[in-house]
Amino acid sequence: MRIRKLDADTRKNILEDLLKRSPNQYREYEERVQAILARVREEKDQALFDYTFQFDHAKVDASSIRVTEEEIEEAYRAADPELIRVIKKALENIRSYHEKQLQRSWFDSQPDGTILGQKVTSLQRVGVYVPGGKAVYPSSVLMNIVPAKVAGVDEIVMVTPPGKDGKITPNTLVAAKEAGADVIYKVGGAQAIGALAYGTESIPKVDKIVGPGNIYVALAKKAVYGHVSIDAIAGPSEILVIADETANPRYVAADLLSQAEHDELASAILVTTSMELAEKVSEEIDGFLKELSRAEIIKKSLDHYGYILVAETMEEAIETANEIASEHLEIQTKDPYDVMTRIRNAGAIFIGEYSSEPLGDYFAGPNHVLPTNGTAKFFSPLSVDDFIKKSSIIAYSREALEAIHTDIEAFAKAEQLTAHANSIHVRFEE
């Protein structure tokens, strides 16, 4: 893995390199996505059936597009009982963590008859996209459905691409059932996003779409935003590790590779103040690559978006981490909590050598749906907040309004909005 001395030019070049992975850079796919969405909007179910046969080589129709209870029961029989046990245990942790995020409506009343407040309401219907393709991610099922369930969403609609046999993998179905999906449909890709956004004969229109997917899914979510809400436009996975001379090079190397194996566009970066650690981590990576099953994918990922950066000071390392704003940030230093207090931009922060990134992916409880491509500067992890909306509450008595009505009228007249002023004035006419 390449080692670079960290300086202003290196940091600038890496940032530009990483941003090339953003879905916003793949404009050549946009026309195809728009065509798929337009056809789904026009032809509804028929478009879904045709695209599912074209892209997933599976035949579905109105009688088979929805997963049945019998199929879910079959999935439980086919799934590994040990995995089911682990899914249930992870689900408890995820639910417990997200329950702490719950917000309540609040009201504040004053003696003069003023009542102000905020009404918190869960969304009515949410669509959850679950990827298929290269890998199966029951963990992603849990992370997207559980916070919606905790928020009190009335109906959770899940979509996921079927295999050639027209079936969904057992692990995905078990995770969906355990998490609380109300209905599951066998459709994926941009066409599934279109179905959730516009509605078809089989699939109801939703209020919001969440969940990761490939470039077609990402661009489709971007295109339907406004018809529905979305969580974010997910980019490729990424990890950044801040480490000093006290870090274990074998742990650091293993953690970097845990993200590099996702796909060829994944990013894995170590920023360290120790050249000795940098060299040892590089050696450990070479050793692991001889053993790991996805070594070819990892090599391509590291060749394009993998870096070991050697900084002069910890302050420089932290500044670089804040500028990159990584999806996952591990801190393996002598005083990791001190470093943590100086981190401004990160999707999830893992503190100490036993807080490896996969702990967050599967089990700890915090959500693993995180902002990527530097968007941690202004986006947060998926949470209960994504599945609620808020309404302002305003109630004034005559006494309360009378005390301030001339102020409001003056403000309105200053903006030349005389009807605004009149709406207040008529209530105090002689």
From TrEMBL:
Keyword list (alphabetical) reads: Amino-acid biosynthesis, Histidine biosynthesis, Metal-binding, NAD, Oxidoreductase, Zinc
Q: Which residues bind Zn(2+)?
A: Q259, H262, D361, H420
Per the record, the pathway is: Amino-acid biosynthesis; L-histidine biosynthesis; L-histidine from 5-phospho-alpha-D-ribose 1-diphosphate: step 9/9
List, in alphabetical order, the Gene Ontology terms for molecular function in this entry. histidinol dehydrogenase activity; NAD binding; zinc ion binding
Q: What is its EC number?
A: 1.1.1.23
Please give the GO cellular component terms listed in this UniProt entry.
cytosol
Q: Where does NAD(+) bind?
A: Y129, Q191, N214
Q: What does this protein's record comment on cofactor binding?
A: Binds 1 zinc ion per subunit.
What is catalysed by this protein?
Answer: L-histidinol + 2 NAD(+) + H2O = L-histidine + 2 NADH + 3 H(+)
Domain of life according to the entry = Bacteria
Q: Which CDD domains match?
A: Histidinol_dh
Does the UniProt entry include the keyword Magnesium?
Answer: no
Q: Does the keyword rRNA processing apply?
A: no
Q: What is its EC class?
A: oxidoreductase
Q: Which cofactor does it need?
A: Zn(2+)
Binding of substrate: at which residues?
S237, Q259, H262, H328, D361, E415, H420
Pfam family example for this protein?
Histidinol_dh
Family designation? Belongs to the histidinol dehydrogenase family.
Q: What does this protein do?
A: Catalyzes the sequential NAD-dependent oxidations of L-histidinol to L-histidinaldehyde and then to L-histidine.
Q: What is this protein called?
A: Histidinol dehydrogenase
Q: Which gene encodes it?
A: hisD
